Amino acid sequence: MNSIPKMPRIRITSPILSGIVSAFLWLCVGAVLASLIVAMTDVSEELITTATFFIHGIASLFGGFSSGKRSVSKGWYHGALLGILYTALVVLIGFLSFDAGIGKDTAVMLAVSIPAGALGGMFGVNAKN
Q1: DSSP class per residue in 58-100
Q2: Rounded to an integer, what distance in angstroms lies between the CA atom of residue 123 and that of residue 90?
Q3: pTM flag (> 0.85)
Q4: Calpha distance 115→105 (Å, rounded)
Q5: Can you give the pLDDT at residue 4?
Q6: Does position 10 have pLDDT exceeding 60, yes or no?
Q7: Residue 128's Cα: distance from chain center in Å?
């Protein structure tokens, strides 16, 4: 007697695409939380640089987890590849939006995103469905 038909579920089967979507969702959540903390407290804006690297690391970790969970094997590989693609997309968006160049912050973000994504991929490939 269910008069409302079920909505079709969208399932992303590609491990890398699934991880990128998950990573950018976590990035959005982290950015909103960081901006709320800056707006509502006396935290200086200089701490935001450190917080952004932490947010990118968490986003890469959860993106790698999602990527590793979708892949059957080589979770570290899919997670590390996700970290590289995630950094490239963030740098590309920054370049196109704000005319931001490639500098030492890009290298630091790459150094944070690759191991975080690989670690998330290792945990994700071993997670039970």
Answers
A1: HHHHHHHHHHHHHSSS-HHHHHHHHHHHHHHHHHHHHHHHH--
A2: 24
A3: yes
A4: 16
A5: 67
A6: yes
A7: 21
What confidence score (pLDDT) does residue 58 get?
A: 98
Nearest partner of 82 among 100, 94, 70, judged by Cα: 70
3-state secondary structure of 53: helix
CB within 8 A of 108, min separation 6: which ones? Answer: 53
Instruction: Provide mean pLDDT across the span 94-98.
Output: 92
Q: If we measure between CA atoms, which residue out of 20, 23, 18 comes closest to residue 58? A: 23
CA distance 28 to 90: 12
Retrieve residue 16's tokens: 């890398």
**Beta carbons within 8 Å of 124's beta carbon, 6+ residues apart:** 64, 65, 66, 67, 68, 69, 70, 71, 75, 79
Cα–Cα dist 85/45, whole Å:
28
b/e burial code for range 47-70 (CB count within 10 A of at least 16 → b): eeeebbbebbbbbbbbbbbbbbbb
